[in-house]
Amino acid sequence: MTEKEPASPVRQLRVVVRAEDYDAALAFYRDVLGMPEEEAYEGGDGARVSILDAGRATLELSNPAQVRLIDSVEAEGRPSARIRIAFEVDDAAGTTHRLVEAGAELIAEPRETPWRSLNSRLDAPAGLQLTLFQELDPKPGHP
């Protein structure tokens, strides 16, 4: 952001997911994927919530043609869920393997995309479809 651009009025993107098996989902996302727990609360009737740090958040809006293009590149044309969560990771192949060992269902093995990232796709706990991606040409300021 340059000095002339105003800050976004949105301070945080928080994706809220109902997890029928809360403990399994928490272990998967916190312990296996490695998203640190920032906050956790318990309430009456067994209510529980954990807020996990997912790094920088963006909202990617794609029209149907773009979704079909991504599906063809990333998953041999298998249609993606209406909402798919994409995580940038340092090692897409290794992280994919760890998540499959922890119970995720592999949809598509990691593969290099035309936009120079290594992407895989998984069905994961709490009913989420995930894309893991590793940037092969890091942007300035990225490790």
From TrEMBL:
Q: Which InterPro entries match?
A: Glyas_Bleomycin-R_OHBP_Dase, Glyas_Fos-R_dOase_dom, VOC_core
The residues covered by the VOC domain are 11-135
Q: Which Gene3D superfamilies match?
A: 2,3-Dihydroxybiphenyl 1,2-Dioxygenase, domain 1
Pfam families, sorted? Glyoxalase (PF00903)
- What protein am I looking at? VOC family protein
